[in-house]
Every structure is written in structure tokens, then in C-alpha cells.
Write a structure and sequence with these properties.
globular; alpha/beta; three-stranded mixed beta sheet
Amino acid sequence: MSTIRRATHSGSWYTNQGPQLSRQLDRWLGAAELSHGPARAIIAPHAGYTYCGACGAYAYRQVSPAVVKRIFILGPSHHIRLRGCALTTAKKYKTPLYDLKIDNQINAELEKTGNFSWMDMKTDEDEHSIEMHLPYIAKVMEDFKDQFTIVPILVGSLNPEQEALYGRILANYFIDPQNLFVISSDFCHWGHRFNYTYYDRSCGQIYSSIEKLDKDGMTLIETLNPNAFTEYLRKYNNTICGRHPIGVMLNAVKTLQNQGYSNMSFKFLKYAQSSQCKDMDDSSVSYASGSLVFES
């Protein structure tokens, strides 16, 4: 059984040439400013880099690599029906830059809770929501490449009670400043091909309506209130594919707030759309990058 997950989306969703990828990521990170760090958690997109590479940099720019020893990556499941969360059976994840080591100890701790299953290698390699973060992680951590591990977690279609459960489990890890959480999500998938064409005509153009819809959701995420975000999703059904990883993060924060931690602040730093929809036959995907910090 192979224990190495291949970079299955390299060469299509992003370049498989290490030096070229490194230069590309450097350029995007150089164009983003450090304004809300050091990040304890980030929300960043997982589309092809031509669409969202520049946007993602605004989240990764907030990471303080010297501090980070462990990176949890919560990505939504796109291909399999999953009722909970699943861990990887791999020992290493390949990237065109260098291989990332899986944290076996944390996997064992999470398995002991009885709330995690294991994804097989085919599921792992088919899924892009975690992989699209690996080159960025490798890049920002390159000066400390032997000093950190990763904990990939595939997140299924959770109900609000499950989001709260996983939030409580992961809250213990949130407290440690050596842990970074990467929450993988795109925002609105708009158009007939996504079966979603919500349009508030008072906003003017379709793309402006999409932006308002997304930013209403982003504002609620910034309040760090999981119930408000759940209500928003019920009301508008916005096609935010990482809604469940975001819900888990919000519930982890809520758990910490209930324990007396009141110094957390989340801020979105960049918003983008793959194209501007002006016609009902158009389609687009939105991207947003943000960072959670613990104010001292």
C-alpha cells in the first residue's frame, strides 16, 4: 500500500515545475500585505491558481512561519458522500516544491475520539480542496521545512450539531499558537451549471448582486457567530463549498469564547470573482481570503 499521496492536480490546476511554481507564489505573496497576523487560522480558496492564486496569497501572507509547527487543513469533500470527517492514510503528501509530512500522533489522537474515519488513497488523490493549499504551505514554510507537520482533514456534509462537535474537538488544538488552521473554501458558485442563480436586481449587475451576497456572508463570519452563518446559509443557500469547514472553525472559536477566550478577531482581506457575470447565461466562482488572530 502506498503511503505517499501524489500531487495529482499539478500540471493542470497549477504548474508541476517547482522553480516556476516557487516564483509564481513569491510574486503573489509579494503583492499581498501583512495586515492581520500572525494568523491562527486562515480561510483561502482552492480553485486553479490562474483563478485564485493571487487571492489566496492575502491569507498566506498573514502566517508567521517561525512559530508554526503543525498545520491542520480542513477541506470539503467534493466527490464522496461523507457524513463526518476523515483523516489521511498517507505518511507524506508530495508537492512540486518538497514533500510534506503527516502528523501521525495527531491522527492517532483524533481517531481515539471515535469521530473520524479514514479516507482511502483514491479519495485522497481525487480531492482537490486540500491539495490546492499544499504548494502555498510549502512556500511559506520553506525556511522551516523540517520543523512542521500537516494534519489533513476531509470534512463531509455536517449538520450544525456535528459542526459543533468537531469544533469542540479541534478547539483544544486552536489554543496552541504553534498550530495553524487552513480552512479551504471558495465562495459563491453562480450560474445554471451550479444550479444557483440568485439575483437581487436592486444591486444592478449580476456580479454586484453576487458580491453583496458573498460579503453579507463574510461579514457574518467576521462576527464569529456560527448560528448567524448557519441562518444565512439557510436563507440564501449561497453555494459556499467550504461552508462546513468554516462552520467547524466558527464552532471551535465559540468553544474557546465559552472558556473565557475573548480576544479573537477574524478579518477578510481580499475578495475576487473568476469573471463578472452580466447575463443569466454567465457563470462565475468567488474567492475570499481572511485571517483569524488572537489579539494579545
